[in-house]
Every structure is written in structure tokens, then in C-alpha cells.
Amino acid sequence: MTRSAEVSRKTKETEISVSVHVDGKGKADISTGVGFFDHMLDQLSRHSLIDMTIKAKGDLHIDDHHTVEDTGIAIGQALSKALGERRGIMRYASIDLAMDETLTRAAIDVSGRPFLVWNVAFSSPKIGTFDTELVREFFQAMAQNAGITLHVTNYYGANNHHIAETCFKAVARVLRAALEPDPRQPDAVPSTKGSLKG
Q1: Distance from the CA of 138 to the CA of which of 32, 77, 88, 145 falls in 20 to 30 A?
Q2: What is the bridge-based pairing of β-strands 126-127 and 130-131?
Q3: Radius of gyration for the chain, computed over Cα atoms and rounded to the nearest angstrom
Q4: What percent of the chain has pLDDT above 90?
Q5: pLDDT, position 170
Q6: How far is CA 75 from its chain centroid?
Q7: What span, in angstroms and rounded, lies between the C-alpha atoms of 149 and 107?
Q8: Which distant-in-sequence residues (6+ apart) come within 8 Å of 5 by Cβ?
């Protein structure tokens, strides 16, 4: 089964199209109008090996919030659609990811039950022109709509760009590991309930 999906989402605030191919090579074609966010989404694609095409037009004359949050919604919906019954996946993964002076942990359960635990603090409200609070908003929207439990903890770091980037890279790596096919039970839903749909 090809684990691919496309989602389009249009509101008065944003117009977004997302396509994902879970068993890809990490190829990204991304344009949201928010430069730092594009850089982070490129990291998400590259390190998860999920091919992503993301096109977003939003009310950036107001701020970046709606574009970032709605992109998270659309990516989450596309991932959920691509995974279907979540049959044959590893389901769980965790990683401690280092980048220079920064260390961030991510843990995931592709459970069908959305939840975000966020233990990340930034020392500045901005990275360039990007609001640091939007990093959490993105992962909240993605986790909620993908139906995943996601825990992200930054242990330490001095550079806010590095803190944000380790969050995206760590989440990418746990997505990659958790969505890998399980060779010992390729056709089974990895749950005693027999379902990972919430």
C-alpha cells in the first residue's frame, strides 16, 4: 500500500495544499511565505524522510499565526490519511537530539489519540521576525490532526534558532522511526485494542 495523501484547506485566513509520501526520501517543496518556517519544514521533511509538498497563502499582513497553525493542521490531516489503519508500523519512538550547545528530546506514540506535552522555553519572543511561540502552535496543530501523542522537551540550549531546529529535527526523527514498517508484524495493528484510530 502506498502511504501517500493530499489535503487542501481553505478558509478566510489561509489557503493551503499539502501532499505527503511517508515512504519517501525526504524531498521537500515548500512555500509558506514565512522564511524561517519554510526552513523548519524542510528539516521536518528531510529528517523524517517523508516527501512533502506544501503551498500556503495566508494573511501574513496580520501575522504568521494562522499560516503556521493551519499548515500544521493540514500536515497532520495528510499524515493521518496516509497512514490509514496504521497497520504494520513500529508505533513508538524517542530520541535525544543534539545540535551544538542544544539538546532536545522527542518521544512519540502514533496512537490515534492526540496529545502534546511541550517543555520548551525560548529566551526571546522572536527568531528574526518569527514568533517563537508559534513553534508550539505548529506541533499542537500537527499532533491534534495526525492523531499522535507527542512529547517534546528541551533540556538546554543558548541559541533560540538551535532550540527550534532541534525540536523539528527530533520530531522528524521519531516520526521516521515510529512510522517504519515492523518486519515482525507487517500486517498487524500494533495495539491490543486492534485499532489505532482513537
Answers
A1: 88
A2: antiparallel
A3: 16
A4: 87
A5: 98
A6: 7
A7: 8
A8: 19, 20, 78, 79, 81, 82
